[in-house]
Fold this sequence. Notes:
Rossmann fold; 2 domains; 16 helices; globular; binds uridine-5'-diphosphate
Amino acid sequence: MNNEIKKYESLMGKGEINEIISLAKELGPVKIQNINSTKQGGGVAELLISTIPLFQNLGFDVSWDVISGNHSFFEITKKFHNILHGIHIPINPQIRKKYEKNVKANYEIISDDADFIIIHDPQPLPLIMKRKDNGTKWIWRCHIDVTEGDKRLIGYLRQFIDRYDCSVYHLPNYTFSSFHDEYIIQPAIDAFTDKNRDLSDKEINKELDRYEIDPEIPIVLQVSRFDKLKNPLGVIKAFQKVRDVGVSAQLILAGGEADDDPEGDKVLERVEKKAQKNPDIHILKSPPDIAVNALQRSASVIVQRSIREGFGLVVTEAMFKGKAVVGSNVGGIRKQIIHGESGFLVETDEGTAYRIQQLLTNPELNEKLGEEARKTVIKNFLMPNLVKNWILLFLSLKHDGRKGAVRLGMSE
Ligand code: UDP
């Protein structure tokens, strides 16, 4: 019993893990249903894949369901996603109707007897309209940075959000200012999956061979879905500047697609076109987790040049592997990297190129920042932290009026 969480004792200490186990006992055998819009691709799926076994191992009955939708539904929700990230796109009442109608067609997936239903992100948000008076607590879990989002769309979504018992965000400034309680729970990574576990040199070399990557040439890496907001073209620009000053390196852009993102193909096409002219750039499509792990461990510099970023689990993964990340000064990236101490935060292509070059040519600095990066993740962003915060939230909802007694989230 509790074997999964106990694996973390070696990284986080026995005391911390025992505390989580006793909080789980206090909560008792609750039933939890998660609902989102994709089983694979992106950070939400990644979080659920890792969280669910841990919760189950702590004795909870946890399920994960996915809403279905046609291409036009996911085009609409991708539009919402872009608008919430500050991109201007008009939305008319028909679009809203289509969105609500599609979600309505998914009502049958709602569990009748869950203690807690967690709805992830805006795609399945209107499911709350089917809420029954059966004691289930409904939680909306928002994974995105809406600080630049269009107020009209935010206002429209609030009519659904306000019906939930509470909502949960990555960072304090991401909240929707709803009428109910809003909590902060920062994401986390699983240290023991193929994506993050220690790899032997043999395993790493096997993955590099598979993609015909020459390990003798320093690797600059970005792992991300092919999405405009992940800015792969900006990475290419910065990399070219590094090569222009004669620093030896190869760029790897590794990326998969998410089922709920209809724009991926177009972005990938553009990236491939740009990369065609440059033999130092490799595009790897949908590498398996062990390959992502091997690439992150072999990279000399890891870049995350996002225009917007909810949290950026991929940055956490890289930092956990002792890598100094050059990340855009946005969203969750700026919460993870302390500039000059555990990586670099950048604003421009020139700045990105400068920091990549600095890390490629100064291995001591690179190693020092990487060590700090790993410590930051072990302290703040491993799965038991997240599990603990969720259990505290469930406890506070279970005991309703005593919410104030429970402190949630990591200190700023
Ligand atoms: N990822 C992956 N393969 C890819 C691209 C991304 O496994 O080709 C994973 C990545 O390792 C991370 C997640 O997808 O775990 C992306 O999460 P993040 O929060 O960085 O971004 P999101 O895609 O949710 O915006």
